[in-house]
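Task: complex structure prediction.
Instruction: return structure tokens for all chains below.
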Amino acid sequence: MAQAQAASGENAYRITAELTGQVKEAVQAQDQDCLVALLDALHVADIADLFEQVDPELRRDAVALWGRHFDSEVISELDESIQEELLSQLPRERLKEVVRDLESDDVVDLVEDLDAEQQREVLSALNDVDRAVVEQSLQYPEESAGRLMQREIVMVPSHWDVGTAIDHMRSETGLPEQFYHLFLTDPKVKFVGMASLGRIMSSRRETRLLDIIEEDCRPIPATMPEEEVAYAFNQYHLISAPVVGEDGRLVGVITIDDAMNVLDEEAEEDILRLAGVGSESLYDRVFDTATQRFPWLIVNLATAIAASAVIDQFSEAIGMMVALAVLMPIVASMGGNAGTQSLTVAVRALATKDLTGSNAWRIIRRESMVGLINGLVFAAIVGVVGGIWFSSTSLGAVLALAMIITMFAAALSGILIPIGLERVRIDPALASGVFVTTVTDVIGFFAFLGIAAAILF
Amino acid sequence: MAQAQAASGENAYRITAELTGQVKEAVQAQDQDCLVALLDALHVADIADLFEQVDPELRRDAVALWGRHFDSEVISELDESIQEELLSQLPRERLKEVVRDLESDDVVDLVEDLDAEQQREVLSALNDVDRAVVEQSLQYPEESAGRLMQREIVMVPSHWDVGTAIDHMRSETGLPEQFYHLFLTDPKVKFVGMASLGRIMSSRRETRLLDIIEEDCRPIPATMPEEEVAYAFNQYHLISAPVVGEDGRLVGVITIDDAMNVLDEEAEEDILRLAGVGSESLYDRVFDTATQRFPWLIVNLATAIAASAVIDQFSEAIGMMVALAVLMPIVASMGGNAGTQSLTVAVRALATKDLTGSNAWRIIRRESMVGLINGLVFAAIVGVVGGIWFSSTSLGAVLALAMIITMFAAALSGILIPIGLERVRIDPALASGVFVTTVTDVIGFFAFLGIAAAILF
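Output:
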């Protein structure tokens, strides 16, 4: 019977501190039955989350206590860094069983991140056929359709009818756990078309499969980057898609859950990159995390020093009027923010392919106008604030003028820099921030202090 | 026959400037056949993208010229702001046909964003049954499972066997275009379980459906927020999930493509919110965009003024040593960056539920350590740079000390503020940035200038 419990409330799908506490108690008491009962009630994905969230020592002890009840699928759900840790803890024999339980795409996913020795060990657990399949997948470039696809395909000759296909499936024992289409091939295993199970089931037995295949089905080349694959699934609402080699032969199938995973990872990567964080994980060690964040900070230091050098040019003016030092961060900060707004919209639009050669100029004009409008509005505000604060109309005017220039420059660089980076094939999410901050800082300080020096003295 | 053209290369799935140019020419020449031929070759999702990317005038003319060939499904694929524009351009009769062609979830999606008058017009196009269904869905809260689900469900009595189900489907004409599960209900339409088509097709005719339903299938309450729904699909690799009312009755089904859409939107929202951009679209008007970005900029102005006020407290010290004004942005900028790194990781981890009550303290300790390590490293660097630049060991020491304090405070506030906001149910993606920037700016300037004033004079 299905466990048809309605998930109630917002926290239904979440590892609670209470549950973690119970697991901890069971492990400390070395109560295997209790631990097995607790974990059996959870989905493998939730068990993986639980393992990720507890202390490494507790995780090690829990895996040891769980012992032979260990569910292989948990491995696929774990974060990379924890996968490796856990694999090295499993007894050799148990490791072999775990690997044999997994589907080909999960083994590929697991193996590609391991070091050479662990990789050999995992592959040696497979029988010759499975190992050949995995090794074949590993021939494709990293992060390509070939790595993402699974090799278990429900393939039938293209001349079959519905009845033959159903009879074939009823007699077949090795079908994948989840599948949604039958793939039709010619005698040379070239892809001919695919028919959805829904369509097949609602057709009469004598219907030819060729008559009910999906229109407009574009096979995915095995070398296509996974990012493009995810885009295609999202854009065309695909559920499963055939993957073909260069010769048009059907080599695998990608299902939407894999694509969804990639889409999720891509979005995560963009978010983290925009903030100058690499592909770090919450489970990395402190030292690794500090090291990963270092490059962006050092680049930021360089741009900050460049901005300071600009200020240094005007040290005489600041010496004569300290109010300049007090007000100058306002201009730079507003420019930085306006620039970040523009660049984030641009980076996202490039990632989703909403910003293309067709509309780039229109979007650039649009961003410039937005920058100009907000520049004017904030010029008025800071002009008044600055003027009153230091009882100087001319200081207010300088601040206002600098604000217009900086916010316009910020908006323009916020759109032009990502587009430019994309053109030269550098990931705009990764690099735009540095350039835009440099531009807004340098222009902000230069405009404010330069105009001040020119007008006030 | 399927159009089995392998998509070759990176640009295969993209609207090219060339294509846009051809469409433009066809519209200008009022060549309907040519336009229809160009658009017929495209997927509806690509046609929608094309319409989004061209000028509003060209879009209007293209829709007019496309005329009776207009494909209803294009509407569902369009960005909201363009949907509205296009609906108001369609002749009343054509509008009705368009609406009738759509599935219930697409109509709900369309209708919920329209103004009252357009909403009435669209609903009046439907027959009584369809209208009742759509109006029922609109009763559920915005962004809930009830709004997301489609009402077309393939439902069968739970006592049926495989053969009966297949015969039923063969005789049924109104099946949804895509479906992957049969939903089993009792006589009161309460949800009992679901069986995958793959499982059904590979079972013998006399197999009872109840014996092949999926284990561990949790129905989704209609009031569950769509964000949670997307999480469940992603976490548990679901393809379709039953939606039930409070009484346990099956009211609809959500499929993974809808969930993928939500996941995509949520990630987009987080990215934009982190940059202080609302739910703006590339297709909004300049003035609307400027207005939407204004609130964050005004908040940023307030924090910038607060930082200036801190500097103002030390104007005497700056007057005595202008080097302080030159160097102070370095401290604040580094703090701002380190804080942004921490907060982005925290916001993302909260969104993906990797950061929970179970591991919060460990992550907080980890971030503090990272902040401290990088603080020490950059203290050494800027201490030397500042000391050499202004030939003053004590100025270098002041800079180094301020850097340690600021980067530690940045890391700590970058993790504590998002967690705190989540606790009081404010979206951390939306508000964390402001708080963290304020903390890093104020602490940065205060630490540097305060220590300088205390030590140097």
